[in-house]
Protein backbone atom coordinates (compact mmCIF):
# COMPACT_ATOMS: atom_id res chain seq x y z
CA UNK A 1 0.00 0.00 0.00
CA UNK A 2 1.34 3.43 -0.92
CA UNK A 3 0.41 6.31 1.32
CA UNK A 4 -0.28 9.71 -0.17
CA UNK A 5 2.32 12.29 0.61
CA UNK A 6 1.06 14.89 3.03
CA UNK A 7 2.29 18.42 3.02
CA UNK A 8 1.78 20.73 5.99
CA UNK A 9 3.12 24.18 5.58
CA UNK A 10 2.36 27.46 7.25
CA UNK A 11 3.44 30.82 5.98
CA UNK A 12 5.49 32.21 8.81
CA UNK A 13 5.26 35.68 7.37
CA UNK A 14 1.55 35.78 8.06
CA UNK A 15 2.23 35.42 11.73
CA UNK A 16 4.60 38.34 12.02
CA UNK A 17 2.52 41.53 12.00
CA UNK A 18 5.42 43.51 13.42
CA UNK A 19 9.14 42.93 13.27
CA UNK A 20 9.99 43.82 16.84
CA UNK A 21 8.63 43.05 20.26
CA UNK A 22 6.34 45.62 21.83
CA UNK A 23 6.05 46.08 25.57
CA UNK A 24 3.24 47.43 27.71
CA UNK A 25 0.52 46.26 25.32
CA UNK A 26 -2.15 47.08 27.88
CA UNK A 27 -1.37 50.81 27.64
CA UNK A 28 -2.51 51.16 24.01
CA UNK A 29 -5.57 49.75 22.26
CA UNK A 30 -3.85 50.64 18.98
CA UNK A 31 -1.07 48.15 19.68
CA UNK A 32 -3.46 45.59 21.13
CA UNK A 33 -5.20 45.43 17.73
CA UNK A 34 -2.00 43.84 16.42
CA UNK A 35 -2.52 41.05 18.93
CA UNK A 36 -6.00 40.41 17.53
CA UNK A 37 -4.47 39.82 14.11
CA UNK A 38 -1.74 37.67 15.63
CA UNK A 39 -4.27 35.49 17.42
CA UNK A 40 -6.35 35.18 14.24
CA UNK A 41 -3.31 33.97 12.32
CA UNK A 42 -2.51 31.49 15.07
CA UNK A 43 -6.06 30.13 14.86
CA UNK A 44 -5.59 29.67 11.10
CA UNK A 45 -2.33 27.85 11.79
CA UNK A 46 -4.04 25.68 14.41
CA UNK A 47 -6.85 24.78 12.01
CA UNK A 48 -4.27 23.80 9.38
CA UNK A 49 -2.68 21.52 11.96
CA UNK A 50 -6.07 19.99 12.79
CA UNK A 51 -6.74 19.37 9.08
CA UNK A 52 -3.36 17.67 8.75
CA UNK A 53 -4.11 15.44 11.75
CA UNK A 54 -7.57 14.64 10.39
CA UNK A 55 -6.12 13.77 6.99
CA UNK A 56 -3.56 11.53 8.65
CA UNK A 57 -6.23 9.79 10.74
CA UNK A 58 -8.45 9.39 7.68
CA UNK A 59 -5.69 7.51 5.85
CA UNK A 60 -5.09 5.31 8.89
CA UNK A 61 -8.83 4.69 9.20
CA UNK A 62 -9.13 3.62 5.54
CA UNK A 63 -6.15 1.28 5.94
CA UNK A 64 -7.67 -0.24 9.08
CA UNK A 65 -11.08 -0.76 7.43
CA UNK A 66 -9.51 -2.38 4.41
CA UNK A 67 -7.34 -4.70 6.48
CA UNK A 68 -10.26 -5.51 8.79
CA UNK A 69 -12.25 -6.94 5.87
CA UNK A 70 -9.22 -8.73 4.45
CA UNK A 71 -8.20 -10.39 7.72
CA UNK A 72 -11.81 -11.41 8.43
CA UNK A 73 -11.84 -13.30 5.17
CA UNK A 74 -8.35 -14.76 5.61
CA UNK A 75 -8.85 -16.02 9.16
CA UNK A 76 -11.95 -18.03 8.17
CA UNK A 77 -9.88 -20.23 5.81
CA UNK A 78 -6.17 -19.44 6.19
CA UNK A 79 -4.88 -22.32 4.02
CA UNK A 80 -7.43 -21.74 1.31
CA UNK A 81 -6.72 -17.98 1.34
CA UNK A 82 -2.96 -18.49 1.04
CA UNK A 83 -3.51 -21.14 -1.57
CA UNK A 84 -3.86 -18.27 -3.98
CA UNK A 85 -0.26 -17.22 -4.79
CA UNK A 86 -1.23 -13.52 -5.12
CA UNK A 87 -2.62 -13.51 -1.58
CA UNK A 88 0.56 -15.13 -0.30
CA UNK A 89 2.71 -12.50 -2.07
CA UNK A 90 0.62 -9.59 -0.82
CA UNK A 91 0.74 -10.87 2.77
CA UNK A 92 4.54 -10.88 2.59
CA UNK A 93 4.53 -7.39 1.06
CA UNK A 94 2.12 -5.94 3.62
CA UNK A 95 4.00 -7.22 6.64
CA UNK A 96 7.44 -6.43 5.27
CA UNK A 97 6.74 -3.01 3.71
CA UNK A 98 3.29 -1.53 4.16
CA UNK A 99 2.96 -2.00 7.91
CA UNK A 100 6.30 -0.21 8.23
CA UNK A 101 4.94 2.69 6.16
CA UNK A 102 1.86 2.79 8.37
CA UNK A 103 4.05 2.87 11.45
CA UNK A 104 5.94 5.85 10.02
CA UNK A 105 2.66 7.65 9.31
CA UNK A 106 1.38 7.02 12.84
CA UNK A 107 4.63 8.33 14.30
CA UNK A 108 4.70 11.38 12.01
CA UNK A 109 4.39 14.56 14.11
CA UNK A 110 2.00 16.90 12.32
CA UNK A 111 2.43 19.61 14.95
CA UNK A 112 5.92 20.74 13.91
CA UNK A 113 4.68 23.65 11.79
CA UNK A 114 2.25 24.92 14.39
CA UNK A 115 4.78 24.61 17.22
CA UNK A 116 7.36 26.50 15.15
CA UNK A 117 4.89 29.32 14.60
CA UNK A 118 4.04 29.41 18.29
CA UNK A 119 7.72 29.60 19.20
CA UNK A 120 8.30 32.49 16.82
CA UNK A 121 5.19 34.36 17.91
CA UNK A 122 5.68 33.87 21.63
CA UNK A 123 8.36 36.55 21.76
CA UNK A 124 5.72 39.07 20.66
CA UNK A 125 3.09 37.92 23.17
CA UNK A 126 1.98 40.01 26.16
CA UNK A 127 3.73 39.14 29.39
CA UNK A 128 2.73 38.95 33.05
CA UNK A 129 3.05 42.71 33.37
CA UNK A 130 0.51 43.19 30.57
CA UNK A 131 -1.95 40.76 32.15
CA UNK A 132 -1.56 42.44 35.53
CA UNK A 133 -1.89 45.87 33.94
CA UNK A 134 -5.09 44.89 32.15
CA UNK A 135 -6.50 43.42 35.38
CA UNK A 136 -5.68 46.59 37.32
CA UNK A 137 -7.37 48.57 34.56
CA UNK A 138 -10.61 46.63 35.12
CA UNK A 139 -10.41 47.36 38.84
CA UNK A 140 -9.75 51.03 38.08
CA UNK A 141 -12.78 51.19 35.78
CA UNK A 142 -14.86 49.48 38.45
CA UNK A 143 -13.94 52.16 41.00
CA UNK A 144 -14.13 55.18 38.71
CA UNK A 145 -17.52 54.33 37.23
CA UNK A 146 -19.07 52.70 40.33
CA UNK A 147 -19.56 49.33 38.64
CA UNK A 148 -20.53 46.34 40.73
CA UNK A 149 -18.73 43.07 40.07
CA UNK A 150 -21.82 41.35 38.64
CA UNK A 151 -22.38 44.12 36.07
CA UNK A 152 -18.75 44.03 35.00
CA UNK A 153 -18.61 40.23 35.00
CA UNK A 154 -21.67 39.97 32.75
CA UNK A 155 -20.33 42.65 30.41
CA UNK A 156 -23.34 44.92 30.86
CA UNK A 157 -21.51 48.12 29.94
CA UNK A 158 -22.98 51.13 28.10
CA UNK A 159 -22.35 51.39 24.38
CA UNK A 160 -20.73 47.97 23.90
CA UNK A 161 -20.77 46.45 20.42
CA UNK A 162 -19.24 43.10 21.26
CA UNK A 163 -20.57 41.91 24.59
CA UNK A 164 -18.34 39.62 26.58
CA UNK A 165 -18.45 38.14 30.06
CA UNK A 166 -16.04 36.96 32.73
CA UNK A 167 -16.01 33.32 33.77
CA UNK A 168 -15.60 32.23 37.37
CA UNK A 169 -11.99 31.46 36.52
CA UNK A 170 -11.53 35.01 35.17
CA UNK A 171 -13.02 36.46 38.36
CA UNK A 172 -10.71 34.26 40.42
CA UNK A 173 -7.73 35.54 38.42
CA UNK A 174 -8.73 39.18 39.04
CA UNK A 175 -9.04 38.41 42.75
CA UNK A 176 -5.59 36.82 42.81
CA UNK A 177 -3.98 39.82 41.13
CA UNK A 178 -5.63 42.14 43.65
CA UNK A 179 -4.39 39.83 46.41
CA UNK A 180 -0.77 40.04 45.22
CA UNK A 181 -1.09 43.84 45.45
CA UNK A 182 -2.42 43.52 49.04
CA UNK A 183 -5.66 45.03 47.71
CA UNK A 184 -7.98 43.02 49.93
CA UNK A 185 -11.00 45.14 49.07
CA UNK A 186 -10.98 44.04 45.43
CA UNK A 187 -9.81 40.55 46.40
CA UNK A 188 -13.01 40.13 48.39
CA UNK A 189 -15.22 41.52 45.63
CA UNK A 190 -13.88 39.27 42.89
CA UNK A 191 -13.49 36.11 44.94
CA UNK A 192 -17.12 36.53 46.02
CA UNK A 193 -18.15 36.96 42.38
CA UNK A 194 -16.26 33.79 41.39
CA UNK A 195 -17.92 31.90 44.23
CA UNK A 196 -21.34 33.26 43.28
CA UNK A 197 -21.00 32.09 39.68
CA UNK A 198 -19.90 28.63 40.79
CA UNK A 199 -22.81 28.44 43.25
CA UNK A 200 -25.13 29.30 40.36
CA UNK A 201 -23.93 26.20 38.54
CA UNK A 202 -21.28 27.51 36.18
CA UNK A 203 -18.98 24.73 34.99
CA UNK A 204 -15.42 25.84 35.64
CA UNK A 205 -11.95 24.64 36.48
CA UNK A 206 -11.89 27.12 39.36
CA UNK A 207 -11.85 25.36 42.72
CA UNK A 208 -14.21 26.56 45.46
CA UNK A 209 -11.72 25.59 48.15
CA UNK A 210 -9.02 27.79 46.61
CA UNK A 211 -11.47 30.68 46.27
CA UNK A 212 -12.64 30.38 49.87
CA UNK A 213 -9.03 30.26 51.06
CA UNK A 214 -8.25 33.61 49.43
CA UNK A 215 -11.61 35.09 50.33
CA UNK A 216 -11.50 34.26 54.04
CA UNK A 217 -8.04 35.77 54.39
CA UNK A 218 -8.99 38.94 52.48
CA UNK A 219 -12.05 39.39 54.70
CA UNK A 220 -9.98 38.85 57.83
CA UNK A 221 -7.43 41.44 56.68
CA UNK A 222 -10.27 43.95 56.47
CA UNK A 223 -11.30 43.24 60.06
CA UNK A 224 -14.45 41.15 59.60
CA UNK A 225 -13.51 38.23 61.87
CA UNK A 226 -17.03 36.77 61.98
CA UNK A 227 -17.32 36.55 58.20
CA UNK A 228 -13.79 35.15 57.96
CA UNK A 229 -14.73 32.35 60.38
CA UNK A 230 -17.92 31.58 58.45
CA UNK A 231 -16.00 31.32 55.17
CA UNK A 232 -13.32 29.16 56.79
CA UNK A 233 -15.98 26.78 58.12
CA UNK A 234 -17.39 26.48 54.61
CA UNK A 235 -13.91 25.72 53.32
CA UNK A 236 -13.45 22.97 55.91
CA UNK A 237 -16.77 21.42 54.89
CA UNK A 238 -15.30 21.03 51.40
CA UNK A 239 -11.86 19.95 52.58
CA UNK A 240 -11.75 18.90 56.27
CA UNK A 241 -8.01 18.22 56.03
CA UNK A 242 -7.11 21.68 54.68
CA UNK A 243 -4.05 22.49 56.79
CA UNK A 244 -4.12 26.29 56.52
CA UNK A 245 -7.87 26.49 57.08
CA UNK A 246 -7.62 24.37 60.24
CA UNK A 247 -4.81 26.58 61.50
CA UNK A 248 -6.74 29.75 60.68
CA UNK A 249 -9.86 28.48 62.41
CA UNK A 250 -7.92 27.86 65.63
CA UNK A 251 -6.42 31.31 65.41
CA UNK A 252 -9.79 32.96 64.75
CA UNK A 253 -11.33 31.13 67.71
CA UNK A 254 -8.44 32.29 69.89
CA UNK A 255 -8.98 35.90 68.86
CA UNK A 256 -12.71 35.63 69.47
CA UNK A 257 -12.06 34.17 72.95
CA UNK A 258 -9.71 37.03 73.78
CA UNK A 259 -12.37 39.53 72.77
CA UNK A 260 -14.89 37.86 75.09
CA UNK A 261 -12.39 37.82 77.91
CA UNK A 262 -11.95 41.57 77.48
CA UNK A 263 -15.65 41.81 78.35
CA UNK A 264 -16.48 43.86 75.31
CA UNK A 265 -20.13 44.61 75.17
CA UNK A 266 -22.03 43.37 72.18
CA UNK A 267 -22.85 46.96 71.27
CA UNK A 268 -19.22 48.02 71.34
CA UNK A 269 -18.30 44.91 69.41
CA UNK A 270 -20.89 45.62 66.74
CA UNK A 271 -19.76 49.24 66.47
CA UNK A 272 -16.18 48.10 66.10
CA UNK A 273 -17.12 45.53 63.47
CA UNK A 274 -19.00 48.18 61.53
CA UNK A 275 -15.99 50.46 61.69
CA UNK A 276 -13.58 47.74 60.69
CA UNK A 277 -15.70 46.46 57.84
CA UNK A 278 -16.31 49.96 56.50
CA UNK A 279 -14.55 49.24 53.24
CA UNK A 280 -12.60 52.00 51.64
CA UNK A 281 -10.83 51.41 48.38
CA UNK A 282 -8.04 53.76 49.41
CA UNK A 283 -7.65 56.98 51.35
CA UNK A 284 -8.62 59.01 48.33
CA UNK A 285 -8.08 62.74 48.49
CA UNK A 286 -11.10 64.98 47.90
CA UNK A 287 -9.68 65.70 44.45
CA UNK A 288 -9.81 62.01 43.65
CA UNK A 289 -13.49 61.84 44.53
CA UNK A 290 -14.23 64.93 42.44
CA UNK A 291 -12.23 63.47 39.57
CA UNK A 292 -14.19 60.21 39.63
CA UNK A 293 -17.53 62.01 39.90
CA UNK A 294 -16.68 64.18 36.90
CA UNK A 295 -15.64 61.10 34.92
CA UNK A 296 -19.13 59.74 35.57
CA UNK A 297 -20.72 63.01 34.51
CA UNK A 298 -21.71 63.89 38.06
CA UNK A 299 -21.17 66.98 40.13
CA UNK A 300 -20.93 69.65 37.43
CA UNK A 301 -20.88 72.99 39.19
CA UNK A 302 -21.90 75.48 36.49
CA UNK A 303 -25.06 77.41 37.35
CA UNK A 304 -27.80 78.18 34.79
CA UNK A 305 -26.78 81.82 34.94
CA UNK A 306 -23.22 81.00 33.94
CA UNK A 307 -24.43 78.56 31.27
CA UNK A 308 -26.32 81.42 29.59
CA UNK A 309 -22.97 83.13 29.05
CA UNK A 310 -21.67 80.26 26.95
CA UNK A 311 -22.13 80.73 23.22
CA UNK A 312 -21.38 79.10 19.89
CA UNK A 313 -20.10 81.15 16.97
CA UNK A 314 -18.31 81.18 13.63
CA UNK A 315 -14.70 82.10 14.29
CA UNK A 316 -12.28 83.61 11.76
CA UNK A 317 -9.10 83.56 13.85
CA UNK A 318 -9.24 87.30 14.54
CA UNK A 319 -9.66 88.19 10.86
CA UNK A 320 -7.11 85.67 9.64
CA UNK A 321 -7.18 85.80 5.80
CA UNK A 322 -7.60 82.02 5.56
CA UNK A 323 -10.80 82.05 7.61
CA UNK A 324 -12.55 85.32 6.75
CA UNK A 325 -14.61 83.68 4.01
CA UNK A 326 -14.70 80.23 5.60
CA UNK A 327 -14.79 80.62 9.40
CA UNK A 328 -14.74 77.57 11.66
CA UNK A 329 -17.39 76.58 14.19
CA UNK A 330 -16.42 77.32 17.78
CA UNK A 331 -18.35 76.83 21.02
CA UNK A 332 -17.68 77.64 24.66
CA UNK A 333 -17.24 74.62 26.92
CA UNK A 334 -16.45 76.52 30.14
CA UNK A 335 -16.05 80.09 31.30
CA UNK A 336 -13.34 80.07 34.02
CA UNK A 337 -10.92 78.90 32.84
CA UNK A 338 -12.14 79.62 29.35
CA UNK A 339 -12.23 76.39 27.39
CA UNK A 340 -13.39 76.49 23.78
CA UNK A 341 -14.09 73.67 21.35
CA UNK A 342 -13.50 73.87 17.60
CA UNK A 343 -15.86 71.64 15.60
CA UNK A 344 -15.04 69.78 12.36
CA UNK A 345 -11.47 71.03 12.70
CA UNK A 346 -9.68 67.88 11.51
CA UNK A 347 -10.93 65.55 8.76
CA UNK A 348 -11.23 61.76 8.88
CA UNK A 349 -8.53 61.52 6.20
CA UNK A 350 -6.14 63.64 8.25
CA UNK A 351 -6.90 61.59 11.36
CA UNK A 352 -6.09 58.32 9.56
CA UNK A 353 -2.85 59.76 8.21
CA UNK A 354 -1.76 60.87 11.68
CA UNK A 355 -2.64 57.43 13.11
CA UNK A 356 -0.67 55.66 10.38
CA UNK A 357 2.36 57.84 11.04
CA UNK A 358 2.13 57.49 14.80
CA UNK A 359 1.23 53.83 15.33
CA UNK A 360 4.67 52.31 14.53
CA UNK A 361 6.28 54.73 16.98
CA UNK A 362 3.90 54.42 19.92
CA UNK A 363 5.72 53.88 23.19
CA UNK A 364 4.75 54.10 26.84
CA UNK A 365 3.81 57.68 27.67
CA UNK A 366 6.07 59.49 30.10
CA UNK A 367 5.74 62.39 32.53
CA UNK A 368 8.22 64.98 33.73
CA UNK A 369 9.73 64.21 37.11
CA UNK A 370 9.51 67.56 38.92
CA UNK A 371 12.61 66.77 40.96
CA UNK A 372 14.93 65.72 38.14
CA UNK A 373 13.26 67.35 35.13
CA UNK A 374 13.66 64.02 33.31
CA UNK A 375 11.02 61.93 31.56
CA UNK A 376 9.79 58.81 33.31
CA UNK A 377 6.84 56.40 33.15
CA UNK A 378 4.17 56.64 35.83
CA UNK A 379 1.31 54.43 37.04
CA UNK A 380 -1.07 57.40 36.85
CA UNK A 381 -0.55 57.84 33.11
CA UNK A 382 -1.67 54.75 31.19
CA UNK A 383 -1.29 55.36 27.47
CA UNK A 384 1.22 55.31 24.64
CA UNK A 385 2.38 58.29 22.64
CA UNK A 386 4.40 59.15 19.57
CA UNK A 387 5.92 62.39 18.31
CA UNK A 388 5.54 63.76 14.79
CA UNK A 389 7.30 66.66 13.09
CA UNK A 390 5.78 68.99 10.54
CA UNK A 391 8.49 68.23 7.98
CA UNK A 392 7.58 64.52 7.96
CA UNK A 393 4.22 64.96 6.29
CA UNK A 394 2.34 67.76 4.53
CA UNK A 395 -0.71 66.70 6.59
CA UNK A 396 1.08 67.39 9.88
CA UNK A 397 2.44 70.66 8.51
CA UNK A 398 -1.04 71.70 7.40
CA UNK A 399 -2.47 70.92 10.83
CA UNK A 400 0.26 72.96 12.52
CA UNK A 401 -0.53 75.93 10.28
CA UNK A 402 -4.23 75.62 11.08
CA UNK A 403 -3.54 75.74 14.82
CA UNK A 404 -1.27 78.74 14.39
CA UNK A 405 -3.88 80.61 12.36
CA UNK A 406 -6.67 79.98 14.87
CA UNK A 407 -4.68 80.66 18.06
CA UNK A 408 -2.37 83.43 16.88
CA UNK A 409 0.53 81.57 18.42
CA UNK A 410 3.61 80.89 16.33
CA UNK A 411 4.23 77.15 15.95
CA UNK A 412 7.60 77.50 14.22
CA UNK A 413 9.43 76.74 17.46
CA UNK A 414 6.93 74.24 18.78
CA UNK A 415 7.67 70.86 20.27
CA UNK A 416 6.80 68.00 17.98
CA UNK A 417 3.21 66.87 17.66
CA UNK A 418 2.30 64.35 20.36
CA UNK A 419 -0.19 61.61 19.44
CA UNK A 420 -1.64 59.57 22.31
CA UNK A 421 -3.54 56.29 22.27
CA UNK A 422 -5.07 55.03 25.50
CA UNK A 423 -5.12 51.38 26.50
CA UNK A 424 -7.63 49.36 28.51
CA UNK A 425 -8.75 51.66 31.31
CA UNK A 426 -6.31 54.22 29.93
CA UNK A 427 -6.09 57.45 31.90
CA UNK A 428 -3.96 60.40 32.93
CA UNK A 429 -4.71 61.42 36.50
CA UNK A 430 -5.01 65.12 37.54
CA UNK A 431 -1.99 67.17 36.50
CA UNK A 432 -0.90 70.59 35.29
CA UNK A 433 0.41 71.22 31.79
CA UNK A 434 2.56 74.09 33.06
CA UNK A 435 5.52 73.96 35.43
CA UNK A 436 5.02 75.37 38.91
CA UNK A 437 7.48 77.61 40.72
CA UNK A 438 8.72 74.64 42.73
CA UNK A 439 9.53 72.85 39.45
CA UNK A 440 12.14 75.07 37.82
CA UNK A 441 13.50 72.17 35.77
CA UNK A 442 10.10 70.81 34.63
CA UNK A 443 10.96 71.24 30.93
CA UNK A 444 14.73 71.11 31.20
CA UNK A 445 15.07 68.23 28.75
CA UNK A 446 12.93 70.08 26.21
CA UNK A 447 15.05 73.19 26.46
CA UNK A 448 11.91 75.33 26.68
CA UNK A 449 10.10 77.70 28.95
CA UNK A 450 6.69 77.20 30.48
CA UNK A 451 3.56 76.17 28.60
CA UNK A 452 1.23 79.02 27.75
CA UNK A 453 -1.70 77.02 26.42
CA UNK A 454 -2.94 73.57 25.41
CA UNK A 455 -4.60 72.49 22.16
CA UNK A 456 -6.16 69.02 22.17
CA UNK A 457 -7.61 67.18 19.17
CA UNK A 458 -10.01 64.27 19.66
CA UNK A 459 -9.33 61.75 16.91
CA UNK A 460 -11.96 59.17 17.88
CA UNK A 461 -15.36 58.91 19.47
CA UNK A 462 -15.53 56.97 22.74
CA UNK A 463 -18.61 54.90 23.57
CA UNK A 464 -18.30 55.45 27.33
CA UNK A 465 -15.84 57.30 29.55
CA UNK A 466 -12.72 59.07 28.36
CA UNK A 467 -13.69 62.63 29.31
CA UNK A 468 -11.16 65.39 29.96
CA UNK A 469 -12.09 66.78 33.38
CA UNK A 470 -11.05 69.79 35.46
CA UNK A 471 -11.56 68.87 39.16
CA UNK A 472 -10.83 72.37 40.45
CA UNK A 473 -13.80 73.90 38.62
CA UNK A 474 -16.04 70.88 37.96
CA UNK A 475 -15.78 70.87 34.16
CA UNK A 476 -16.09 67.75 31.98
CA UNK A 477 -15.23 67.86 28.28
CA UNK A 478 -16.30 64.77 26.37
CA UNK A 479 -14.46 63.31 23.36
CA UNK A 480 -15.97 63.99 19.97
CA UNK A 481 -14.15 62.90 16.85
CA UNK A 482 -12.95 65.71 14.60
CA UNK A 483 -13.06 68.40 17.30
CA UNK A 484 -10.39 70.16 19.34
CA UNK A 485 -10.41 72.01 22.65
CA UNK A 486 -8.15 74.90 23.61
CA UNK A 487 -7.33 76.69 26.85
CA UNK A 488 -4.63 78.91 28.33
CA UNK A 489 -2.53 77.51 31.15
CA UNK A 490 -0.97 80.83 32.19
CA UNK A 491 -2.36 84.23 33.08
CA UNK A 492 -1.09 87.30 31.13
CA UNK A 493 1.34 87.87 34.01
CA UNK A 494 2.98 84.51 33.27
CA UNK A 495 1.66 83.01 36.50
CA UNK A 496 0.11 79.56 36.27
CA UNK A 497 -3.67 79.20 36.27
CA UNK A 498 -4.21 76.45 38.84
CA UNK A 499 -7.83 76.03 37.78
CA UNK A 500 -6.54 74.35 34.59
CA UNK A 501 -5.47 71.24 36.53
CA UNK A 502 -7.06 68.47 34.48
CA UNK A 503 -7.17 64.73 33.89
CA UNK A 504 -8.00 62.20 31.19
CA UNK A 505 -10.64 59.80 32.57
CA UNK A 506 -10.30 56.05 31.96
CA UNK A 507 -11.91 54.82 28.76
CA UNK A 508 -14.74 52.51 29.82
CA UNK A 509 -15.80 51.32 26.36
CA UNK A 510 -14.06 52.25 23.12
CA UNK A 511 -10.68 53.40 21.87
CA UNK A 512 -9.42 56.90 22.52
CA UNK A 513 -6.98 58.60 20.18
CA UNK A 514 -5.86 62.12 20.95
CA UNK A 515 -3.37 64.48 19.46
CA UNK A 516 -1.39 67.10 21.33
CA UNK A 517 1.13 69.57 20.05
CA UNK A 518 3.63 70.95 22.53
CA UNK A 519 5.58 73.83 21.28
CA UNK A 520 8.10 76.12 22.75
CA UNK A 521 9.53 79.38 21.60
CA UNK A 522 12.61 81.15 22.81
CA UNK A 523 11.46 84.42 21.32
CA UNK A 524 7.77 84.11 20.55
CA UNK A 525 5.51 87.06 21.26
CA UNK A 526 1.76 86.71 21.37
CA UNK A 527 -0.93 89.25 22.15
CA UNK A 528 -3.20 88.00 24.94
CA UNK A 529 -6.96 88.27 24.79
CA UNK A 530 -6.72 91.27 27.11
CA UNK A 531 -4.12 92.89 24.89
CA UNK A 532 -1.18 92.06 27.16
CA UNK A 533 1.99 90.92 25.45
CA UNK A 534 3.42 87.54 26.47
CA UNK A 535 6.76 86.19 25.34
CA UNK A 536 6.83 82.40 25.19
CA UNK A 537 5.99 79.33 23.20
CA UNK A 538 3.26 76.89 22.36
CA UNK A 539 2.93 73.60 23.93
CA UNK A 540 -0.28 70.53 22.24
CA UNK A 541 -3.66 65.16 22.43
CA UNK A 542 -2.60 65.55 19.13
CA UNK A 543 -1.95 68.38 21.85
CA UNK A 544 -0.35 71.72 21.65
CA UNK A 545 1.25 73.36 24.66
CA UNK A 546 2.34 76.96 24.18
CA UNK A 547 5.43 77.71 26.20
CA UNK A 548 7.32 80.60 27.77
CA UNK A 549 11.08 81.03 27.83
Summarize the structure.
The protein contains 16 helices and 20 strands.
Average pLDDT level? 79
The count of β-strands is: 20
Shape summary: flat
Rg calc: 33 Å
β-sheet strand percentage: 15-25%
**Which structural class should the secondary elements be placed in?**
alpha+beta
Low-confidence stretches: 1-22, 276-284, 517-549
Largest sheet entry: 10 strands, mixed
| Helical residues, percent | 40-55%
C-alpha end-to-end distance: 86 Å
**Discrete helix count:** 16
Strand and helix map with partners:
Layout (H helix, E strand, L loop, with lengths): L28 H48 L1 H5 L2 H23 L4 H11 L5 H17 L4 H5 L14 H13 L3 H16 L8 H14 L3 H14 L4 H19 L4 H11 L9 H10 L8 H4 L4 E4 L12 E7 L4 E5 L4 H11 L4 E2 L2 E2 L6 E2 L6 E6 L5 H14 L6 E9 L5 E4 L18 E9 L3 E4 L2 E3 L4 E3 L5 E6 L13 E3 L2 E4 L2 E7 L4 E4 L5 E4 L5 E7 L1
Parallel strand pairs: 17-20
Antiparallel strand pairs: 1-2, 2-3, 3-14, 4-7, 5-6, 7-8, 8-17, 9-15, 10-14, 10-17, 10-20, 11-16, 12-13, 12-15, 18-19
